[in-house]
Design goal:
Oligomer: single chain
CATH topology of the largest domain: Dehydroquinate synthase-like, alpha domain
Radius of gyration: 21 Å
Largest sheet: 6 strands, parallel
Number of helices: 16
Bound molecules: nicotinamide-adenine-dinucleotide, zinc ion
Strand content: 15-25%
Structural class: alpha/beta
């Protein structure tokens, strides 16, 4: 037998930066992240329609900024695409971005700069990853959830066949730039919903962070930007550390601790036709898996109560009608999400649970009767 074997590795490096007024001309952060051997680098901006509406002066600011930094950046176009989950459901959106990459001659040395919520960043990142097998992309997240979780990671995605994130790539960005000013125009719903990803990562990794969120709950619901900045920073840091240090940045194995609470979340999002926001679904998913851990004897009653109370105090939802839907017999329909989760990951079913606040662990089986009890308990708690 003949064989030619090879082994190589690729090092990735990117940073998440925290700033204010990113497009004020004297702020050089964005232009500093752009590098081209033949400057100026072509830049295509993809902007979330929610941001475009909330910040009508943004387009003008981008034009002035790129003009002022014309030695490094060449603005080809500013494309506005529909914000929200529909960005990931609508084939036209993806086509629109790919077409712009084609029309404006965006190449592997050009930059696609996406500004928006997690959904727009996911589809824009996906388009950047597949066009020319990879165009450089910079993420400018504008929601709490995108700044503390989805925007700082390595995944890009698009929904297909009624399945969330069915299409996607692992493709790290060149840089992530969080501008706290953008958060000012978020609806209260989107301001709060991203906090659930911080609760998630605190529960599996960092009890001190969990205590801090408890202390700050009132300030957070009252839109205290200082408390929110601290939460976003620590949450982003824990996510980025996990990706870099946990030995599986591109999720080849079966474990996915950062998806704690997510098997139910993804199912509830699609069952509700995306009426339920990702962050809201994660809050419900966390509560459910904590109650499951309690019924299965892994988690103490006092920790379970603390977690449920924090979710309540943050005005995040604990349930939704879809959670109790039983069209398919005597089990709750949401439980089909367990197998869909396994299928999406491949390999063995691996669900992260917690044994105490700050300590995640994995199980490979879910006991249906404990899960039914957990759903019933959640109905009472809500
Ligand atoms: N890639 C990943 O690793 C990853 C991780 C977690 C979640 N996600 C994905 O992220 C998505 C959820 O992201 P999200 O919570 O940011 O919601 P979203 O992207 O759906 O945005 C919510 C709404 O806020 C609007 N908006 C955005 N920024 C605004 C601002 N500053 N002011 C006013 N309105 C604004 C949007 O137009 C939209 O209507 C889901 O699709 C989820 O699957 C991806
Ligand atoms: Zn999530």
């Amino acid at each position: 037998m003949k064989q030619i074997s090879q082994r190589f590795s690729v090092t990735y490096h990117y940073a998440a930066y925290f700033t204010e007024n990113l497009f004020s001309i004297e702020n050089s952060l964005l232009t500093d992240t752009i590098f081209s051997e033949t400057p100026p680098a072509k830049c295509l901006f993809v902007v979330d329609s929610g941001i475009a509406e909330a910040w009508p002066q943004l387009t003008q600011a981008i034009r002035q900024y790129t003009n002022a930094h014309a030695d490094k950046m060449y603005l080809t176009a500013i494309l506005t695409i529909e914000g929200g989950e529909n960005a990931k459901n609508n084939q036209q959106t993806l086509h629109h971005i790919l077409e712009a990459i084609h029309t404006y001659g965006i190449c592997r040395h050009s930059y696609l700069i996406a500004i928006g919520g997690g959904a727009v960043l996911d589809v824009a990142g996906y388009a950047a990853a597949i066009a020319h097998r990879g165009v450089r992309h910079i993420r400018i997240p504008t929601t709490v959830l995108a700044q503390n979780d989805s925007g700082v990671g390595v995944k890009n995605s698009f929904n297909a066949f009624g399945k969330k994130n069915f299409l996607g790539t692992f493709q790290p960005p060149v840089a992530v730039i969080n501008d706290s000013k953008f958060l000012e125009t978020l609806s209260q719903r989107d301001w709060l919903s991203g906090i659930s990803e911080a609760i998630k990562v605190a529960l599996i990794k960092d009890a001190t962070f969990f205590e801090q969120i408890e202390k700050d709950a009132k300030a957070l619901t009252a839109r205290d930007s200082h408390a929110m900045q601290a939460l976003i920073y620590r949450c982003a840091e824990l996510h980025m550390q996990h990706i870099a240090q946990n030995g599986d940045p591109f999720e080849r194995g079966s474990a996915r601790p950062l998806d704690f609470g997510h098997w139910a979340a993804h199912k509830l999002e699609s069952m509700s036709n995306y009426r339920i926001r990702h962050g809201e679904a994660v809050a419900i998913g966390i509560a459910l898996d904590c109650l499951y851990a309690f019924h299965a004897g892994y988690l103490s009653e006092s920790d379970t109560i603390r977690i449920i109370n924090l979710i309540k105090n943050l005005k995040l939802p604990l349930s939704a009608p879809e959670l109790f839907q039983q069209l398919g017999g005597d089990t709750y329909d949401v439980m089909a999400g367990i197998n869909e989760f396994r299928e999406h990951l491949g390999g063995n079913l691996t669900i992260t649970l917690i044994s105490s606040i700050g300590s995640g662990f994995e199980v490979h089986n879910i006991n249906n009767s404990y899960m039914q009890q957990a759903i019933d308990s959640l109905r009472q708690a809500a």
